[in-house]
Amino acid sequence: MEWLQTIAVVLDSTVRLSVPLICAAMAGLWSERAGVVDIGLEGKMLIAAFAAAVAALVTGSAWAGLGAGIAASVLFSLLHGFASITWRGNQIVSGVAINMLAVGLTAILGNAWYGQGGRTPALEGAARFGDVRLPFGPWAREHVPVLGLLYDEVVSGHGAPAYLALAAVIATAWVLKRTRFGLRIRAVGENPAAVDTAGISVAGLRYAAVAIGGLLCGLGGTYLAVAQSAGFIPQMTAGRGFIALAAVIFANWRAWPAFGACLLFGVLDALAIRLQGVTLPGIGLVPVEAIQALPYVMTIVLLAGFIGKATPPKASGLPYVKER
């Protein structure tokens, strides 16, 4: 059973490490399906993590932190929308500006308020999301030990934002494919002129998609600071926003394949942690830096192999100019 315990631990780490990627990937999916390129996922998650940690520290409530994280991320999303939708600015430049603003603002405010190099003090008790133990775990362990172990270690025992992230994947896949609102979002990313001809606000739909993306980035950033960690650390997103964007491209802008791609990155990250200090047969001791680079190397490989084959929404990255 030792090998099964090892597999369960790796899968448990995979789920925990995948949650921020899943949230950011769903956020990018909403935004880009509406025709707005969003490389500011990294910055929105970072500002959400900072706001969530500060609010949780002040109020002593992880849920208050979640609300503050979502609010901060949505605010940055609307800022991106104002620049790229209302003023029809370059969406890439706006996204880069969002990332730079988040990095600088969190570092300056964190150091000014707490004097710990940009960190926030450690969160304790109700200020952090605890693990949620789902029912049937003890029963499954007693009657089906193998499945019970996997259920108890992998499915159960995660913070509330992890289950909200899974719900976000289900909702995103269903709304974009099965509802009128989702059809309009997809239409605005493919042919905004036709949507405008039908008397539907192109700008309104794009703002709605960008705001939903901000909500999801807020969920992912909050999970990083208030569930996975015990406070905010400068640049703690560590490229996850860009990895999530790579997952969206690899999945050809579809929800469930993007979810699977995020789990793949999570597995690599979990293995990188597990393999540190381990001597591999025929290879020897692999440098820690090489193992930690695995998820980023995979990002480059996937982008190099699929960037030319992926088909983004036709209006993605193009400002909509209303014809007179």
Tell me what you see in this structure.
The structure is a single chain. β1 (279-280) and β2 (284-285) form a beta hairpin. This protein has a single domain, classed as ABC transporter involved in vitamin B12 uptake, BtuC, CATH 1.10.3470. The mean pLDDT is 87. It contains 14 helices and two strands; from the N terminus they run ααααααααααααββαα. The N and C termini lie far apart (70 Å). It is mainly α and 324 residues long. The protein is globular. α1 (2-33) runs antiparallel to α10 (202-228), α2 runs parallel beside α4 and α3 packs antiparallel against α4 (91-114). Helix content is 71%, strand content 1%. The protein has helices at 2-33, 41-59, 62-86, 91-114, 137-143, 145-155, 160-178, 180-190, 192-197, 202-228, 240-250, 255-274, 288-292, 294-306; strands at 279-280, 284-285. Strands 1-2 form a two-stranded antiparallel ribbon.
Keywords:
324 residues; globular; ABC transporter involved in vitamin B12 uptake, BtuC; mainly alpha
